[in-house]
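Researcher: Good morning. I'm working through a list of sequences from a screen, and I'd like to move beyond sequence-only analysis. For each chain I'm collecting a predicted structure so we can compare shapes side by side. This is the next one on the list. No need for commentary yet; just the structure.
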Amino acid sequence: MPAEEHVTARRSLRERRRAAATQEILDAAERHIVENGPAALSLRAIARDLGMTVQALYHYFPSWSDLVTALITKAYDDMADAVQAAVDEAPDAPAPARALVATEEYRRWAVTHPERFQLLYGTPLRKYAAPANGPTTQAMIRMSRIFQRELLDGFTTAQLEAADAPALSPSLRTHLAQLPPHGLGALPPPATALLLSAWGHLHGLVVLEVFGHTDFLGDHQAEIFSMAVRNLVKDVRSRVPDSDSDALAAGPLAGGGLASSS
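Model: Good morning. Structure tokens for this chain:
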């Protein structure tokens, strides 16, 4: 019996009921966000929709912030699941093609679930602060790893270190090099700079569309997005040397990473 099935089989009736009730609360909260927007999220309204008291809801989510944390984590996970599933459908495609698949699915999820996307990237909710290094952070890291892997797949550390990134100041290089190794810190600073720049362009296009700023394009928004990300992926990958020998021959100034320190 697979480990997951074994754990499920061992769950008590009480645990199963709690899991079902928790999921029901999350579903109701997501419906509330879709109908009223993230800022209107209310424990009292959710409890009323479910026919339960607020005190009973506290048994599952001790505070409003705990519920928000669960909703944000679930939104990131649902988005990451969708993007990963899309990439998995093209296992033999070259890295640039998989990167495009990932970006297209990211946009599709965002425009299909605009209110949940706004919960992640819209105006911060008043009085909410995500727990430090908590589940929302881990879910966000999982999402970013997919793009990091697909955008930079096939390159070695030496190649990424020699990436043709804009000149990085010594202090910025030091800061990027000290990022946690389970996130962007796994990349050399020049590659991190390129990835963050690409993410900003990609995400900015999606935000503009979700928040209605590109409605004037009508049905052509998808075409504009596709054209932009194709150019973006091509540009990023063209900035990485073709081989380790090319990277090493370029020397420590490749990409301008140390140029500002001379």
